[in-house]
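[AMINO ACID CHAIN]
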Amino acid sequence: MKVLFVVLLVFVIASSNLCATECSTFDVVGYGATGNGQTDDTKAFLKAWKDVCGATLQTAKLVIPRNKTFMLQPLSLKGPCNPATIEVRLEGTVIAPKSNGDWKFLDEKNKWIEFSDISGLVIEGGGLIDGQGAAWWNIADVSIRPTALHFHNCKDVRLRSMHHKNSPRNHISIDTCNGLEISHVRITAPMQSPNTDGIDISGSSNIFIHSSIIQTGDDCIAINSGTSFVNISDIFCGPGHGISIGSLGRNGDDARVENIHVRNCTFLGSTNGVRLKTWRGGRGYARKIVFEDIKVVGVMRPVIINQNYLGLLDGISAVKISDVSFRNVKGTTGSDSAVELNCDPYVGCNDIVLDHISIVKEDGGEAKASCSGAQGTCFRCNPIVPCLSDSQLT
């Protein structure tokens, strides 16, 4: 009997060690996570991630089960990992510490949950990420606030089917990534919450964002320097500050953005619709950009190019804006303004095309367009954009 017990004990230990490298599913509860919404479950998540990342399998799955709430301190889930695909099943709820004084930062204070140096990551499951950011919003001017979900140097990532709310700052940050798709997500924060961008993209390429609802206190989506080949479609934005390229060229920086396509998006009651914003004194370019099939409802500033965004530097340099099209933009403005093209007097904006623009005031009255320093054409535009060539009768 004693021999049998020893044999069974050895088998259990061996099986446990084998599971750390061979099992396909890793549930955070099995690693000690309580999921009661109060206990710090960070260590359990890190232990589970270590086994997921080290698994000798083609596909490994990290499960965050439903009907549980996991409180996490800032953590970094790092690669490179062995599996070709890692699936994170976010079925339950993940929350940040409620009070900003309860946060335990690792080093930098600008991230809560980070995925870095990972290929083939899939995050889905219908769960919730709650940044509990209200305590941070009141000290926005005097404190560094963390991004809720940060992707750094990742490749072939899919994020879908989840709700993300109330980040201390921007909700999702994409930095130095290649091949990332976000779909069927809902991102929400109060209209007054400062700098709570939905999705920020920097230094990345081949990004596809579609079929999602974003309602926050700042940009629904912001595209920053070093970004190219971005396709955005079927987004509902509002409240918020619209879909923005920039700001670019701050502090004289050399900014580069190109090959951006935004289509079939709806803006409801947002501060802005679609816009480019660059700082005076910056360098570089923003080019090969298309906004098309855009619906605006009560948007304060539907179409904007601002090459002098908060410009404090004198001189003749500016981020070069060229080959930008706004096609089939229709709806209502919540102000008098429909189109604003404010281009630098020295550098200007070239090859600007407005095609089938129809924007009126909410009461049906005529809206206005302002334009300076821009060169291009306007085809069937209402209102007429004064500094562009009028092709309405052709």
Q: What stands out?
A: Residues 328 and 356 are 5 Å apart (CA to CA). The radius of gyration is 24 Å. The first strand starts at residue 25 and ends at 27. Residues 1-21 have pLDDT under 50 and may be disordered.
